[in-house]
Structures are given as structure tokens and as C-alpha cells.
Amino acid sequence: VEVPDMSTITDPERLVRTADIADLVVAYATGCRHPFAISLGLDEVQFICPRCGRVDHNGGTARVLDFRRWSCHWCRHVGTRWHLERLVLEDASMLEALYEAQA
Q1: Is the pLDDT of residue 7 over 50?
Q2: Which of 14, 54, 18 is CA-nearest to residue 37?
């Protein structure tokens, strides 16, 4: 598997800003490096909560609510897309995963 060169990402902030929230979740979960960081259900994607880090027997405890919000059923936190954007921008492996998802 070829790892993208970070120099090919010319505008990381634009990449993150224009990404779908589902792609941000996948990039975040990829960077977590946890075997159950993300699980695909019938109608939703569950992922590790960025706030509490909880994982239960079904995988992560957070899920996407809409195009700009996510929530965790464990800590009852409702997070924003901006929170995921910041996490992805601050981690090179997450940013690379997002780049690959957009390519």
C-alpha cells in the first residue's frame, strides 16, 4: 500500500473543510488505530467518541447525527463537525486517510 506524500496535500484546511462528515469520521477512526474504532451498521456508522474514548461490544459509542453534528450515547456529548475537523488537521495519519478517501 502506497502512503501518500504529505506534500501532495496542498491545502489541508480546504480538504478538511470540504469533506463529508462521514469521511472525517473514517479518517478519525483510521488514525485511532483501535480494532473497533469504527463499525458500520445498517443505517449508521458508529465510532470511538473523541471526547470520552469509549468503545462497547458494538464498537464505538458515537454516531453521526447530521452533516454538522455527532453524539455519544455513553457520555451524552453532542459534538460538532468542527471538532472532528480539528482532530484530523492535527494528525498526519488522519489527514492522509482523509486525502485517500477523497482521491
Answers
A1: yes
A2: 54
**Mean of pLDDT values over 70-98:** 95
Asked whether the beta carbons of 85 and 11 are under 8 A apart, the reply is no
Predicted local distance difference test score (pLDDT) of residue 59: 78
pTM of the model as a whole: 0.86
Torsion 66-99-26-81 (CA) sign: negative
What does pLDDT average to over the chain? Answer: 88
Is residue 91 helix, strand or coil? coil
What is the amino acid identity at position 32? C
Q: What is the DSSP string of 55-88?
A: EETTEESEEEEETTEEEETTT--EEEHHHHHHHH
- For 10-60, what is the HEC assignment? CCHHHHHHHCCHHHHHHHHHHHHCCCCCEEECCCCEEECCCCCCCEECCEE
